[in-house]
Amino acid sequence: MIYLDYCATTPVAYEVLDTINKVTKEYIGNANSIHSLGRKSRDLLNSATNQIANIFNVSPNELIYTSGATESNNMALIGVALANRKKGNHIIVSKLEHPSIYSICNHLETLGFEISYVKNTAEGLIDFDDLKKLVRKETILVSICAVNSEVGIRQPLKMIRQIIKKENFGTIFHSDMTQAIGKVSVNLHDVDLASISAHKIYGPKGIGLLYKNSNVDMVPLIYGTSKEENNYRPGTPSLPLIAAFSKAIRLANNDLEKKERFITLLNDKIVNHLKKYPHILINKTNYSIPHILNISLMDVMSEPFVYALEKKEVYVSTNTACSSKELSTSVMAIYNDLNRAKHTIRISLSSLTTTDEVNRFLQIFDEEYSKLSNLK
Length: 376
Ligand code: PMP
Description:
Layout: E1 2-3, H1 14-26, H2 36-56, E2 63-66, H3 69-83, E3 90-94, H4 99-110, E4 114-118, H5 128-134, E5 139-143, H6 157-167, E6 172-176, E7 193-197, E8 208-212, H7 239-252, H8 256-274, E9 280-283, E10 292-297, H9 302-311, E11 314-315, H10 329-335, H11 338-342, E12 344-348, H12 355-375
Helix pairs in contact: 1-7, 2-7, 3-4, 9-12
The structure holds 4'-deoxy-4'-aminopyridoxal-5'-phosphate.
Residues 68-70, 98, 100, 145, 149, 176, 178-179, 197, 199, 208, 320-322 line the site of 4'-deoxy-4'-aminopyridoxal-5'-phosphate.
């Protein structure tokens, strides 16, 4: 098998699996119980959270565990919108967000919030002038992803924050960092809120985080126990998943630059190979990270091509796994070309990918592409 869909999800690292196993077996107490078994679990929970807080240089009480980035995005956007509606009803998002952000925005519109979509440049970067124009007195929230999930555009969050805060200091800045963590270095102090997911960084599915700066007003979306640190996500904490997530974050942050250099070589190899095809367009700008390689096969439909590769045990996506039947909104936002956006294939690479896998992938790609393009 050649797995090239690491942006959809990653396999769980062995060390992380060991943690899940060990914690499940050895920590049976509910971290909310006051007896010694509960306290033992609470201690582990605190130490896992402290480790994450140390890595990101934030306070442990600014970290809220969720089921994944979809839930973190919901908690952030809806929770902040409802808490701040007296200050204004205006929210800004980019055209390069994950589909979950757009679903949340559609919901917020039904509650009376106004959503603006900031323009981006031809390179996929947020158009600073447009952002400046859009931020106004009523703007309570801006949400811009750190790394786009389809074309891999990395946004300069620090500069974006400066622009927002200069126009309206009270505007809260959220970033979906799901595709950034473990791929590039991030600074949580560039934003007020950040969404993170474990299963994109070799951690388990079903656990994520919302970083919320302690100054941000946000209402909870679910209600339950009233333990202070559990205010936003009440219920019994999933200790095995939390400990595993903490481990995954520690591992993911090792050797980021070295991993990126290797992945750049793999990405270059694929791009150079595909250049010979006149009907293949490379959807890549100067701001795309190498882990995500998006291409458009203008003379072949994406879905049959993904299935053809799958028959040879090669796994890629059409675009993001969450909207794989629709067009790529990000390619549309950057290139403004419907045909190009309808024909995308996303190849996502990892430091686990080998040169041999890439060579075999290119060979299978050539065979399947020539079959399907000839058919046409
Ligand atoms: N945001 C981005 C940028 C993503 O890539 C994804 C996963 N496709 C999500 C959010 C959703 O994450 P989860 O599966 O953890 O809910």
